Each structure stands twice: as C-alpha cells, then as structure tokens.
UniProtKB/TrEMBL annotation:
Key word Iron present: yes
Provenance organism: Polaribacter ponticola
Source species taxonomy: Bacteria, Pseudomonadati, Bacteroidota, Flavobacteriia, Flavobacteriales
SUPFAM superfamilies named among the record's database cross-references: Cytochrome c
One Pfam family linked to the record: Cytochrome_CBB3
PANTHER family: LIPOPROTEIN-RELATED, QUINOL:CYTOCHROME C OXIDOREDUCTASE MEMBRANE PROTEIN
Keywords linked to the UniProt accession: Heme, Iron, Metal-binding
Domain Cytochrome c: 94-177
Name of this protein: Cytochrome c
Record flagged with keyword Transmembrane helix: no
C-alpha cells in the first residue's frame, strides 16, 4: 500500500512537470539537430524562399574541375584553338607514359599504335580514311580541340578523359608525329 501511494505520487508529479507550455523552447541537447536550416540543392534559401547567389571565390575552380573550355565547335573555334592553345603540362616521362596508356585505350584502335592511321578498325575496313598524323598541319591546340569536340567520324572524347589525360594524349600524339616524320 505504501508503494502504491509512492507510485501514484511519482506519476502525478511527473505529469505536472511534463505538462508545461510546449510553445516555449525547452532545453535541447543539440539544437542544430532539432532546428536545422533547410537548403535547396537548386540554390534557393529555404528560410526566405529567395535565390541564393553564391559566387565562387575569385581565382578558384570548382572541386575536381579545370578551366572551362570556352572555344566554340566551329571552324573559327578550331583556328583559334590552333593558334592560342598551349599544353599546360610539361612533357615529362610520366606524362608521356600516361598519354601512351590513354592513347592505347581510346585512340590506337582507329589511329594505329604508331599514329599512321592504320588501326585495327581501319584494317578491318570499319572506318576508311583515318588520317596519318604527318598528313595534316596539327599542333597541340588543334589536337586538344579535336579531342574535345571530335571531327568527321571521330566523336568527342571529352567525357571519357580528364583534363590532364587529354593533354597527356596531346603530348603523346606530338611524339608519334615526330617519330613518323623521321
């Protein structure tokens, strides 16, 4: 009987304490977990409902990104790339080795291992008229432009190759071109 009175008293006391005003904030252990600020992935502030105009810090590039390639896929753009673009990577042994590896994966099936236009697809007559690298007036800028946009039957390889891999292939193609000219 004594225990029953004690239990009833504790339940009553707990009920009275817990029945306070719910509109006023109570003690919160981690307030940022209870009341988080909503963000929209499309750049709209969830609190105000206005677009958030976040601009990157000057001189920075987005994570995993490289300078934007803003030369148009036109004849004028190809001429501009040929005259203005320079390879930002040094022609080191490591860059040439990786360029050779990427060339073997993406280019050799058509252009051949030597860059003579006699790749396996050309030998099997799947594609005709694949150019020899010595047949055309090309430089680093024009090679990069063709990798980015493609030309004639060759499609763009910009989505398969990273920024550095593209330039490494350019180094390797230039090496093949000089080797063919000998």
């Amino acid at each position: 009987m004594k225990n029953l009175k004690l239990i009833i008293a504790l339940v009553t006391l707990t009920s009275i304490i817990s029945c306070n005003d719910k509109r006023t904030p109570q003690l919160q252990y981690m307030p940022d977990m209870y009341v988080s600020v909503p963000y929209d992935a499309n750049g709209v502030d969830g609190v105000k409902g206005e677009p958030v105009n976040l601009k990157p810090v000057a001189g920075t590039i987005a994570r995993g990104g490289y300078p934007a390639y803003d030369i148009a896929n036109t004849i004028e753009g190809a001429e501009k790339a040929k005259s203005d673009l320079k390879n930002p990577l040094e022609a080191t042994e490591a860059n040439l080795e990786n360029g050779k590896a990427m060339y073997t994966i993406y280019c050799a099936s058509c252009h051949g291992k030597k860059g003579d236009g006699n790749g396996i697809l050309s030998q099997r007559e799947k594609f005709e008229g694949i150019p020899n690298y010595t047949d055309r007036d090309i430089n680093a800028g024009s090679i990069y432009h063709v990798i980015m946009y493609g030309k004639n039957l060759m499609g763009s390889h910009s989505s398969q190759l990273t920024y550095n891999e593209r330039w490494q292939i350019v180094h390797y193609v230039e090496k093949l071109r000089t080797d063919l000219a000998k």
